[in-house]
Amino acid sequence: MEAVDEAPGAALDEAPGAALEVEGVTVSFGGLLALDEVNLDVDARSVTGLIGPNGAGKTTLFNAICGLQSMRRGSVTLDGKNLSRSAPHVRARRGLARTFQRLEVFGSLSVRDNVRVAAELHNRFSDVTGEADATVEPILERVGIADIADEYVDSLPTGIARLVELARALATEPKVLLLDEPSSGLDPSETSEMGNLLTEISSEGLAVLLVEHDVGLVMSTCQRVYVLEFGRIIACGTSEEIRGNEQVQAAYLGAGRGD
Ligand SMILES: Nc1ncnc2c1ncn2[C@@H]1O[C@H](COP(=O)(O)OP(=O)(O)OP(=O)(O)O)[C@@H](O)[C@H]1O
Ligand SMILES: [Mg+2]
Question: Does an H or E element contain 203, and which?
């Protein structure tokens, strides 16, 4: 193989390779091949989109990445470390966090306590000695929910509860954040704020993988977009490239979704 000289002055703080590398991931449910040799990279300091019709396999891919779904084949590498055989909690400790398509929050706890629980667990397992509150308050501010921190989550609209779930994921200080339809239940202005927030947190170093049906949010937020159909990646490119891809339009964008 031909040697390639590294450019002088190449950034020293950037780890080689993507923050999250998914290679050849294959999952089947009985006779159904839900994921077929899926390859995908998620870079630090960017938001990567994953779109595709209902049932394409997006949530299954998240579950495989997190270790909640066993794979028939393939590998999941986080920050250069192969975690394919690691349990979900080990992957979480290594810097993987996610939110769920069906909101997962502690409804009977306050907003602050939801985030505090995550921060305390993270601190305990990471041998962090500081008070969890030192982590919690800046995150509440950051996500824009500090003024309702004492409210019970059950009493809040879905849009706000989604922000609580995002704040809870951030409290684990992840390197890679997987978001499964974070705009579901949000109104247009909340969706636009969500997009701004994702751009901000990714610009600080986080690698974000965004599964979304709101194509506008994906196109305005993501540097790179993957398209999944029937368990296969059928396209990958910039928002512009994806928008102009005829196969994608046929499979998804022009399909006139009802949700
Ligand atoms: N636990 C399971 N057992 C059997 N089949 C499953 C299971 N989970 C998902 N599937 C099937 O795998 C395929 C992919 O489902 P998945 O939920 O990953 O799609 P998705 O892209 O997230 O869809 P949506 O946009 O509706 O959320 C679908 O055909 C689904 O019915
Ligand atoms: Mg899904």
Answer: helix 188-203
